[in-house]
């Protein structure tokens, strides 16, 4: 590090990936975050693995020293991690003593391929020594990298066949032979090098990131750092409290089976319509578990350094999550197209996993998960793409057997229709196109965002009581109840109206929305001259109003 510092000090000026700051006792956290974003983005654009932010050296490259403590350093790291997107921090902060003065060499990792780094939602860059906003052209240049860069295909210098697990290789060869039945016997005769090349796990005998992920020995994980090959299984009780956990690493071809074995997958019983004998099924179909888990492995964005999480709740819910965006955009697009995707995040890894019978790229995997859940009357898989993660929640129990069964018996409903109605039942946000489609088909009623199932669906699915409860009473009936109340009790405060009207306005509204609605109805009746506020600030009939000849 001392030699590296001397090298930096010998340069004529600061550069896009090198910045000196005096910072004798502290440095402004907000400025630090801006420089972190800028230097990380510039390192990416210059195809460098890192950039450097040096504390204890002034602009004239004179060593002045810094007294910044370890506690302050930890605060800086946390601040950067909390406010950068994707969440990043310093790779390492090195202390060097030169001329009896302490200098900090802060090593900033390059922005991942295809993903510029922002600080508090703004992208920063450098123009020579100057800090500024990253230009739109530079943002596009970074984002376009994802179209050509395949992290999983990168060759690891220094790794050899000895860094792979013989047991994992044996399993992979057997799976490859089963997948390619026409050359089954030939495959079993190949030596390890030939097999790995033919299966496109290595490239001309050289070890790739994909090879370490799928077949690497546990101690070989360091080769792919800062990426990780980790899957965490976590068991929680129904209140979300952690009861047990276990972490798994490479070789992932074996670890996914170990994770599968940890999931308890109890039997679930319910009565089928027209039968006195209970139906018994597994809470989680084995296909769904393997598909969701292997999709996490295949499509994780390993450049973000995250791990795969499998959270099992004792009340019958499984959640799988991995780092990165959902490249197809929406689940509906995947279901409706029912065809292979044109682009994958890790094509080299995905193709290898196809040949090892771990995943299927014909486009039916996610669709099959939905159909399995639908046929068991279980809630459909629930996807969440927030926080630059892909999460899917699988519920292994019937939430409402009558509703699910009746919907399944409406043959005119497509899988897409049922997916959208599933969203309505879960109170999830609908797109304008979804709303237009469901309203045109007469499947939902209400106003955005408070939709509920329509009378048609309620009648067909035996949910008439729930329909009335959701829909609530209309404005005219509500005003008639206000009139009736005043006829009987003469005066009433708004709170008294709320007391008997709130529960009648329907479950699709929040309490605040209901109170606002009552306020608007009272104002409407006041404008019409029907009611007024008396000196006690209570509502009463306006004596000058004539009620239709009564």
UniProtKB/TrEMBL annotation:
Coiled coil: none annotated. Signal peptide: none annotated. Transmembrane segments: none annotated. Residues 14-130 form the Schlafen AlbA-2 domain. Pfam families: HATPase_c_4, SLFN_AlbA_2. InterPro entries: RecG_C_sf, Schlafen_AlbA_2_dom, Schlafen_AlbA_2_dom_sf. This is DNA binding domain-containing protein. It comes from Algoriphagus halophytocola. The lineage of its organism: Bacteria, Pseudomonadati, Bacteroidota, Cytophagia, Cytophagales.
């Amino acid at each position: 590090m001392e030699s590296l510092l001397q090298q930096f000090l010998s340069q004529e000026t600061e550069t896009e990936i090198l910045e000196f700051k005096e910072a004798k006792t502290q440095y402004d956290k907000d400025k630090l975050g801006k420089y972190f974003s800028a230097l990380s983005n510039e390192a990416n654009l210059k195809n460098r693995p890192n950039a450097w932010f040096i504390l204890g050296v002034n602009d004239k490259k004179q060593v002045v020293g810094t007294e910044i403590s370890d506690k302050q350093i930890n605060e800086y790291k946390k601040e950067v991690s909390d406010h950068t997107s994707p969440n990043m921090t310093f790779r390492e902060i090195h202390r060097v003593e030169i001329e009896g003065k302490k200098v900090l060499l802060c090593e900033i990792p390059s922005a991942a391929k295809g993903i510029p780094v922002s600080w508090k939602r703004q992208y920063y860059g450098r123009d020579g020594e100057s800090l500024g906003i990253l230009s739109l052209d530079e943002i596009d240049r970074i984002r376009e990298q994802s179209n050509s860069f395949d992290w999983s295909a990168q060759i690891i210098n220094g790794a050899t066949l000895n860094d792979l697990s013989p047991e994992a290789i044996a399993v992979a060869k057997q799976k490859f032979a089963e997948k390619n039945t026409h050359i089954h016997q030939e495959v079993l005769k190949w030596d390890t090098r030939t097999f790995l090349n033919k299966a496109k796990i290595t490239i001309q005998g050289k070890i790739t990131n994909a090879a370490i992920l799928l077949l690497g020995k546990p101690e070989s994980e360091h080769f792919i750092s800062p990426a990780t090959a980790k899957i965490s299984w976590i068991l929680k009780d129904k209140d979300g409290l952690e009861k047990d956990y276990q972490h798994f690493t490479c070789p992932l071809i074996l670890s996914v089976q170990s994770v599968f074995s940890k999931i308890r997958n109890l039997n679930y019983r319910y009565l089928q319509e027209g039968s006195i004998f209970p139906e018994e099924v597994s809470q989680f179909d084995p296909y769904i578990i393997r598909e969701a888990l292997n999709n996490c492995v295949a499509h994780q964005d390993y450049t973000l350094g995250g791990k795969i999480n499998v959270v099992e709740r004792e009340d019958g819910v499984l959640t799988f999550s991995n780092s990165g965006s959902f490249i197809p955009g929406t689940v509906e697009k995947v279901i409706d197209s029912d065809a292979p995707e044109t682009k994958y995040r890790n094509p080299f890894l995905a193709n290898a996993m196809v040949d090892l019978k771990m995943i299927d790229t014909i486009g039916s995997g996610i669709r099959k998960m939905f159909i399995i859940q639908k046929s068991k009357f279980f809630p459909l898989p629930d996807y969440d793409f927030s926080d630059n993660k892909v999460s899917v929640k699988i519920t292994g129990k019937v939430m409402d057997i009558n509703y699910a069964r009746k919907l399944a018996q409406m043959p005119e409903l497509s899988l897409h229709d049922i997916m959208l109605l599933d969203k309505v039942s879960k109170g999830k946000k609908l797109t304008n196109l979804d709303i237009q489609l469901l309203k045109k088909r007469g499947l939902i009623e209400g106003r955005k965002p408070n939709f509920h199932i329509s009378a048609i669906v309620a009648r067909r699915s035996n949910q008439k009581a729930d329909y009335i409860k959701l829909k609530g009473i209309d404005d005219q009936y509500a005003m008639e109840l206000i009139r009736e109340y005043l006829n009987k009790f003469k005066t009433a405060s708004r709170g008294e109206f709320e007391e008997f009207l709130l529960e009648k306005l329907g479950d699709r509204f929040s309490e605040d929305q209901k109170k606002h609605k009552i306020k608007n109805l009272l104002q409407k009746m006041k404008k019409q001259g029907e009611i007024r506020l008396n000196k006690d600030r209570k509502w009463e009939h306006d004596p000058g109003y004539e009620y239709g000849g009564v």
